[in-house]
């Protein structure tokens, strides 16, 4: 992928305007994953959602988003990432307008599904375009730092923006705000981003594989998000989970026999790629406990309103920005992505462990704020490291697919974390209430347990990273160009991001 030549002060071509467009589109998509959460009560009252159906305002977005990432990344590799990015952004913007205009539950859910599809198409190729565009290791590390800041801080920024818009205007504006930004981004993307050569000649989209993996992923996300309401042992959850596994198994068989598979088995032949993807899913599953459960603790136990709750997570966003934009690239260049990632995961696990000790009579500055420091620093260091490692070994022709895999793992991890942690918190709260605990005591006990389990997720990610990942030979930064050939085919893990 390339950008139109934009001369820098040194007379060299600058890709930073193109990066700004890519990150603006990605930020809208990430924000929309959380900006809706604080507006759900207002949406329920306005449109008449039942308590059981309200969760589908979120799920209708998550299911297509998680299911279409791999297919969209493959289409970008074959037919051009610029076209895929612009098309996805246009769909997301149009769907945002329809969401804001919704006058019934059905209209909102259909528009949210379209939003999720547009978000998946947009996100699937963004990271691939960045690593292909920035070929110099130092510049790529900075660019990935910017991308990682958008990925990791966008969720917490969405909580603040959602609270402000809902309180000062109406819930409709959490969707309308995307429209002018999206239109401007589409226009600028068409002008600034240049079409790249594709590797579509002689290759196919593997339609059977695409149908199988998209159905498997959508059903898997559906199973996870519905498990929070029906329980992991219910017949409904087990049935849909089994169906997802059957579809996934059929997809694996198809990939092993297809002449031009959607997901080439070689993508898993690189140790750093597989290890980074696994660690990424586990880390996000644990970290999602902060984005979801800390908000509930501040609102239901500490009594915060939407705006104060949003302000409560701002320190995490600020630290993520400082780490990912300024410190992470330097540390990765000096010590390597693997070493930085291991330290970052220790910090995240420690921050969640601190939240596992929150008291029923706690305060923000003594019990919540101290945990935001290691969480913000850790996540700000971990995301650039993981993004670089996950893209390692991907050839330019497959970088869109690798980008889709990275975002798929993030989406699956977030959905899994939400389902498991919220279910644990709710069940433990119910047990404590049954034993005679007060409402605040029961809620706090449920949140404590969920935070501790979230910390265990991150510790598992730490073990995975320590055992599987390897420091590339002959470099400390882990920032080689995508498509870099390993020095010895028998050890594909020696490529770097």
Structural descriptors:
17 helices; mainly alpha; disordered C terminus; two-stranded antiparallel sheet
Please tell me the total number of domains.
Answer: 2
Topology pattern, helix = H, strand = E: EHHHHHHHHEHHHHHHHHH
Terminal residue distance? 17 Å
Mean of residue pLDDT values: 84
Using only C-alpha atoms, the radius of gyration works out to: 22 Å
Query: What's the total number of strands?
Result: 2
CATH topology of the largest domain: Growth Hormone, Chain: A
Shape: globular
Contiguous low-pLDDT stretches (5 residues minimum) are 1-13, 474-497
Helical amount: over 70%
The second-level CATH architecture of the largest domain is Up-down Bundle
CATH superfamily of the largest domain, by name, is: MFS general substrate transporter like domains
**Can you count the helices?**
17
Membrane topology: Multi-pass membrane protein
Subcellular location: Cell membrane
Keywords: Antibiotic resistance, Cell membrane, Membrane, Transmembrane, Transmembrane helix, Transport
Organism: Streptomyces musisoli
